[in-house]
Amino acid sequence: MTDFFSGIDKVRYAGPDSDAELAFRWYDPERVVMGKRLEEHLRFAVAYWHSFAWPGGDPFGGQTFERPWFADDMKAAKLKADVAFELFEILDAPFFCFHDADVRPEGATFAESRRNLEEIVDYFAGKMESSKTKLLWGTANLFSHRRWMAGAATNPDPDVFAYAAATVKSCMDATHKLGGQNYVLWGGREGYETLLNTDLGRESEQAGRFLSMVVEYKHKIGFPGTILIEPKPQEPTKHQYDYDVATVYGFLKRFGLENEVKVNIEQGHAILAGHSFEHEIALAASLGIFGSIDMNRNDYQSGWDTDQFPNNHSEVALAYYEILRAGGFTTGGTNFDAKLRRQSLDPVDLVAAHVGGMDVCARGLIAAAAMLEDGGLERMRAERYAGWDRPDAKAMLTSDLASIAARVEAENLDPQPRSGRQERLENWVNRFV
């Protein structure tokens, strides 16, 4: 045991009336909602990078956090792992997620970095033997080091492409060894700054082949989990190839991967793309590529990805409504890709941030389940499209323009607008949240 979280007990459910700072008011993991325990519905994961590797900087200032494991060696990496698993225990977290660069020091060579990763994976495996916390997903950091400044799979330098391929292979091996339920590809710099030095066609083909190789390797090693892409627009690259769910789906269709790869959707990225979180989830579900979520929010007065813990259960409820409506998570879950504010220096702040986020998500899911079980929204949705259940309406979808036009004239159709009832629907939602 370390002394980093000294004096902080395991967080437990205490109910909505509790005034304890570190207690769950809404997240009772054993509570059954729609036939499943809340823990099974929400599948919470702690993000290793923001919780333990992020130094507290922002675009205008550097490190504010001082952590005893902030050193670039294996001793510090193991101390960081010790503290991480202590937090998992305090929160009773079902899952965690990591990038390779979060958990091991960078070596002088690729081979040394790989050996460092393998050593820490073995260390994780030992700790997981006595922990309930499992690996939701692993991924590779292909964006922080200067070698990735022009992208990874889309880089104009073939040696960088090769380095990226070797890095992803090592991270997939690590994820597989730890029993990870997904593997995520986050193209942090898969995009471009200017067309003046960019060959769009070439870079797209490189990205498509890279992803195909990832899928091929998944099957080669027998990895049973899901391959996920995390859409992200504009940040840090001006034009991102994985801008949003629709863009990713078009990419997957182009390369015949729509049945092999799903998406990990982040709330903050959805907002940066000009969408709502629930839109991206609903679209992914309708396309058959919904996989998992990163639960973090942006500051709506800021134009960049601030990665804040969720604090609006009404907003979260609409997202979980779409998740439940789609059947819930399978291999995915709710990963807190969120970080403390750079002035929140104390260990207890890290615990409190997760407690608050977990409570907000639980309260949102409970409200979403109540809405879905009531059925009012679905009834009103069905009423709006009821006309399409008529035989003549269904027939139009297999007909042609000339036949439809003839019917309009023959029946002297004069359709009148009908209310979308948006305000009434919003009022209905507010009864639950």
TrEMBL record:
GO terms for biological process: D-xylose metabolic process. InterPro entries: Xyl_isomerase-like_sf, Xylose_isom_bac, Xylose_isomerase. Mg(2+) 2 binds at residues 266, 269, 305, 307. It comes from the Bacteria. GO terms for cellular component: cytoplasm. It is an enzyme of class 5 (isomerase). It comes from Salinarimonas ramus. Belongs to the xylose isomerase family. It catalyses: alpha-D-xylose = alpha-D-xylulofuranose. Keywords: Carbohydrate metabolism, Cytoplasm, Isomerase, Magnesium, Metal-binding, Xylose metabolism. Its cofactor is Mg(2+). Mg(2+) 1 binds at residues 230, 266, 294, 337. The active site is at residues 99, 102. SUPFAM superfamilies: Xylose isomerase-like (SSF51658). The keyword Transcription regulation does not apply. The lineage of its organism: Bacteria, Pseudomonadati, Pseudomonadota, Alphaproteobacteria, Hyphomicrobiales. Its main location: cytoplasm. It is found in: Cytoplasm. GO terms for molecular function: magnesium ion binding; xylose isomerase activity. This is Xylose isomerase. Its EC number is 5.3.1.5. Binds 2 magnesium ions per subunit.
